[in-house]
Amino acid sequence: MSDRADALDLHNPLWRFSLRTYAVPGVAPACLALQDAHGVDVNLLMFWLWAGAERGVEADGPAIGRADALIGAWRENVILPLRAARSWMKRQPFMEEEGCARLREEIKRRELEAEQVEQAMLHRWAGTLEPARRPAQELARANLAAFLRHAGAGDVPEALAAALFSRDPGRSA
Question: What is the pTM for the complete model shown?
Answer without folding.
Answer: 0.90
